[in-house]
């Protein structure tokens, strides 16, 4: 079997990834499918961390435009990520893989507070670590949280799961002439204002030369292909 291309990865999942074909909330069956793929990657001996979003339950930025205070809306969004984290941890543990839910906001009855050295130790002890509550600060997205946590645990790559097959010159759902980009630099993403991750997250990865693989989560087996280094999706690097 092909050797994994990375030893430690951080998988960024949007909250919408847990919806499946629903319009809101969590689809347990689809969450179970994602959990199986994460478990398969983990069984390859790859230390695996996950940052989960909350858009399937609550979008802080969207709600703030409707009159809710932005900081309050963002905190509510962080709580939504914790709900998703609990669901994902439950689904992963049903596959027989040990996990830890770690949050940026303390809520000790249901999760561990984020302590960098402890999180790294969990990975070294062969546990999947799910990070929730973003960075713990308003005005920062879960993309930025993914970049930050990836730096802190010294991940080899960020795997960003999306609904499309990587990065395109335009939205492929709206423009039939959109071209797929196999590889692109951090600067090109920023200059072209491509909405693959927010600018803060891209800048963090650029400063630390951390590669980002953008791929389609809905294609079964893509997480495993990405960690094995197969040509899947698009690569953002130097």
Question: Would you write up a description of this structure?
Answer:
With 238 residues, the protein is an alpha/beta fold. Helix content is 37%, strand content 19%. The protein has a single domain (8-237), classed as 3-Layer(aba) Sandwich (Carbamate kinase). The chain contains eight helices and eleven strands. The radius of gyration is 17 Å and the shape is globular.
Name some characteristics of this structure.
238 residues; alpha/beta; Carbamate kinase; two-stranded antiparallel sheet; 37% helix
* Quantity of strands, as a count: 11
CATH superfamily: Acetylglutamate kinase-like
Q: At the first level of CATH, what is the class?
A: Alpha Beta
The CATH topology: Carbamate kinase
The H/E string reads EHEHHEEHEHEEEEHHEHE
- The helicity comes to 25-40%
The CATH architecture comes to 3-Layer(aba) Sandwich
What is the rounded distance between the termini?
29 Å
Report strand order across the widest sheet. Answer: 4-3-5-2-1-6-10-11-9
Largest sheet: 9 strands, mixed
What is the global morphology? globular
Based on CA atoms alone, the radius of gyration comes out at 17 Å
Low-confidence stretches: none
Strand content: 15-25%
Which structural class should the secondary elements be placed in? Answer: alpha/beta
Number of domains: 1
Number of helix segments? 8
What's the layout of helices and strands?
Elements: E1 8-13, H1 28-43, E2 47-52, H2 60-64, H3 70-93, E3 99-103, E4 112-113, H4 116-124, E5 128-132, H5 142-153, E6 157-162, E7 167-168, E8 180-181, E9 183-185, H6 186-191, H7 199-207, E10 212-216, H8 222-227, E11 234-237
Parallel strand pairs: 1-2, 1-6, 2-5, 3-4, 3-5, 6-10, 9-11
Antiparallel strand pairs: 7-8, 10-11
Helix pairs in contact: 1-3, 5-7
């Amino acid at each position: 079997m092909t050797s994994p291309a990375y030893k430690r990865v951080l998988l960024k999942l949007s909250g919408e990834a847990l919806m499946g074909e629903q319009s809101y909330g969590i689809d347990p069956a689809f969450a179970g499918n994602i959990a199986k793929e994460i478990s398969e990657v983990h069984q390859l001996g790859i230390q695996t961390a996950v940052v989960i979003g909350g858009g399937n339950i609550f979008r802080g930025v969207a709600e703030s435009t409707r009159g809710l205070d932005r900081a309050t809306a963002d905190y509510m969004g962080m709580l939504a990520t914790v709900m998703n984290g609990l669901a994902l941890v439950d689904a992963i543990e049903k596959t027989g893989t040990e996990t830890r839910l770690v949050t940026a906001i303390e809520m000790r009855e249901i999760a561990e507070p984020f302590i960098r050295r402890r999180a790294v130790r969990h990975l070294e002890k062969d546990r999947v670590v799910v990070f929730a509550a973003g960075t713990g600060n308003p005005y920062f997205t879960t993309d930025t949280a993914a970049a930050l946590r990836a730096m802190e645990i010294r991940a080899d790559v960020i795997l960003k799961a999306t609904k499309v097959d990587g990065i395109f010159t335009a939205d492929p759902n709206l423009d039939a002439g959109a071209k797929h980009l196999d590889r692109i630099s951090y600067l090109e993403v920023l200059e072209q204002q491509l909405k693959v991750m927010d600018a803060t997250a891209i800048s963090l990865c650029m400063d630390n030369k951390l590669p980002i693989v953008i791929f389609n989560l809905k294609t079964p087996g893509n997480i495993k292909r990405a960690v094995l280094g197969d040509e899947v999706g698009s690569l953002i690097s130097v």
